[in-house]
Specification:
Low-confidence stretches: none
Mean pLDDT: 94
Strand content: 25-35%
Helix content: 10-25%
Distance between the termini: 44 Å
Radius of gyration: 22 Å
Shape: globular
CATH topology of the largest domain: Rossmann fold
Structural class: alpha/beta
Number of helices: 7
Length: 260
């Protein structure tokens, strides 16, 4: 069995700087996710912003099937050239899962082409996540809805592409609603955004949250990995409509009219 190679990238700053967060996630948010989704079909490695080459050297990007991304306070520190490399790999077929406050990350904006702007409030309120796509691979094993006792509120309007497929909608105790889970395809790659996961709550230990992330990994794994290109290709049939001098089937013609 070929295992899905998963890289879980985390800023890993809050856990170092805030005792409250360190108590909840002593091995880091990425460590909690890794333990929670661990399975025989997954090969998981951890990466962090302060690692060499910001945790994602070329060889790691090239050998990753699905990249999970959690960021919050240091979006601006992520190098633009790294974002460009990750975007290129997504377009080539790598899966990307962005969690919670990653909506403001450079890679979210690059992949979606949108700002990710939204309303927010941190008031320890209950969140109810409605599964509105029960046939989707990511929602398998999830009931009609599930609840989290405490979560940071994210509310509409959420600036995401109109082509996004929404699979979860959330209601918050304070009255706001939010498109809390959506998918996109970019090039040959698949993208999933999932809202739960504020650093001061224990939601990366929740069985439903972990089930969704695990399902998303398997959904987002590459069908193939192939460089995006702009090839000139020969005609399959003889082209007659352009009259004298039209290229023949199987021949590519140069701009000056000569044949290759």
């Amino acid at each position: 069995m070929n295992k899905i190679k998963v890289t879980i990238w985390n800023e890993f700053r809050h856990e170092k700087q805030m005792e409250e967060v360190r108590k909840i996630y002593p091995e880091g948010i990425h460590g909690a996710i890794a333990q929670g989704i661990a399975a025989d079909d997954l090969e998981i490695r951890l990466a962090a912003l302060d690692d060499p080459e910001q945790g994602l050297p070329d060889e790691v990007i090239a050998s990753t099937d699905v990249l999970i991304w959690w960021g919050h306070c240091a979006h601006g520190e992520v190098r633009d050239e790294l974002v460009a490399k990750v975007l290129k790999r997504v377009q080539e077929g790598m899966g990307l899962i962005v969690l919670h406050s990653g909506h403001a990350s450079k890679i979210f904006k690059a992949v979606t082409g949108c700002s990710g702007a939204l309303k927010w409030r941190e008031a320890e309120e209950k969140e109810r996540l409605w599964n509105i796509a029960p046939t989707h691979p990511i929602t398998q094993g999830i009931d009609e809805y599930f609840e989290l006792p405490h979560e940071e509120m994210y509310g509409e309007r959420f600036d995401i592409p109109k082509t996004a497929e929404t699979i979860f909608i959330s209601w918050f105790e304070g009255g706001n609603v939010f498109r809390s889970g959506f998918t996109l395809e970019r090039g040959y790659g698949k993208f999933f955004y999932f809202q739960p996961g504020h650093e001061t709550y224990r939601n990366f230990y929740d069985k439903n949250v972990l089930k969704v992330i695990g399902n998303a990994v398997r959904w987002a794994k590459p069908v193939f990995l192939r460089e995006m290109a702009f090839p000139m290709v020969p005609a399959l049939e003889e082209i007659r409509s352009t009259g004298f001098g039209a290229p023949k089937a199987g021949i590519i013609q140069n701009i000056d009219g000569s044949n290759k």
